[in-house]
Amino acid sequence: MGIFAHPDDAELMCAGTLSLFSKAGWEVHIVTMAPGDKGTAELTRAEISRIRKKEAANSAMLIGATYHCLEFEDLYITYDRESLNRTTAVIRSAKPSVVFTASPSDYMPDHEITATIVQAACFASGVKNLEVDMTPYEPVPYLYYSDPMEGKDIFGKPVLPSVYVDITSEIGIKEQMLACHASQRDWLMMHHKMDEYILAMKRFSAQRGSETGTAFAEGFRQHLGHGFPQNNVLRDIFNNLVHE
Ligand SMILES: [Zn+2]
User: Fold this and answer.
1) DSSP code of 162?
2) Where are the beta strands (DSSP E) in the chain?
3) CB–CB of 138/42 below 8 Å?
4) What is the DSSP pairing of strand 217-222 with strand 142-146?
């Protein structure tokens, strides 16, 4: 399960790895906290939300994944009872063994707060007295943080992955998934006069690839705090595709 702030975040940061999971026979879920309701210069919130949720669902469908939106709002993602409860509920419903989320250090607070909410929700999933009327789910899933945008924190310092997944075989499907987000791609195309949306994703995947001697890779850091599983399950599942 990938739980990210906005539609297209999962595609940019871990779609290749999610595609590998899907090919290996795993059930895959992509969750966004918000529907991308601020991602427009022209449309109303309702209009752009409808479009972007459809784009996200189409993208998920390409790898046979299920898309969920938790219906919070762009730029207002907050750590509170409601966000923790809804995120815990989606974890309890899908029972993921492995969860990917945004970087705890990234260019915008929506991403950073999502990382905190997801960390708490993974832990809370098995906690009986939470205000979520669904059967608690244990054990605590494996949790991995994706790279921040451009692989850097807000001070420009590089954020280095501890785990790399070779996604060379999946770069085509990753590009197709990202291309489903036509509203965002067209917007950037207008600004940059080139297909910066796809090009930037490929550049960054190639950069992570070059750090491990492969063509394209995705980087992650595993949550190794108390109570979370400690072994690198990506290594167990994907063997040679994983570099540490
Ligand atoms: Zn985002």
Assistant:
1) S
2) 2-4, 29-32, 66-69, 98-101, 142-146, 163-166, 217-222, 242-243
3) no
4) antiparallel
Whole-number Å distance between alpha carbons of 41 and 32:
21
How much distance in Å is there from the Cα of 243 to the middle of ligand 1?
A: 26
Using one digit for the tens of pLDDT, what is the confidence trace for 150-181?
Answer: 999 999 999 999 999 999 999 999 999 999 99
Q: How far is 183 from 226, CA to CA, in rounded Å?
A: 41
CA 70 to centroid of ligand 1, rounded, Å: 14
**Whole-angstrom Cα distance, residue 189 to residue 201?**
14
How far apart CA 157 and CA 168 sit, in angstroms, is 26
Distance of CA 36 from the midpoint of ligand 1 (Å): 8
134 CA distance to ligand 1 centroid (A)? Answer: 29
Tokens of 185: 């791609």
Q: Of 68, 48, 54, 60, whose CA–CA distance to 21 is shortest?
A: 60
Q: What is the DSSP letter of 240?
A: G
The helix/strand/coil state of 114 is helix
CA of 108 to the centre of ligand 1 (A): 8
Give me the CATH topology for the region 2-243: Rossmann fold (3.40.50)
Distance CA 140, CA 229 (A): 7
In this prediction, residue 45 carries a pLDDT of 94
Give yes or no for a contact between 132 and 90, defined as CB atoms under 8 angstroms apart: no
Strands 217-222 and 163-166, by their bridges, are antiparallel
Instruction: Tell me the per-residue pLDDT of 36-65, one tens digit each, with 9 for 90 and over.
Output: 999 888 899 999 999 999 999 999 999 999
C-beta contacts of 237-240 below 8 A and 24+ residues apart: 237/21, 237/24, 238/20, 238/24, 238/165, 240/166
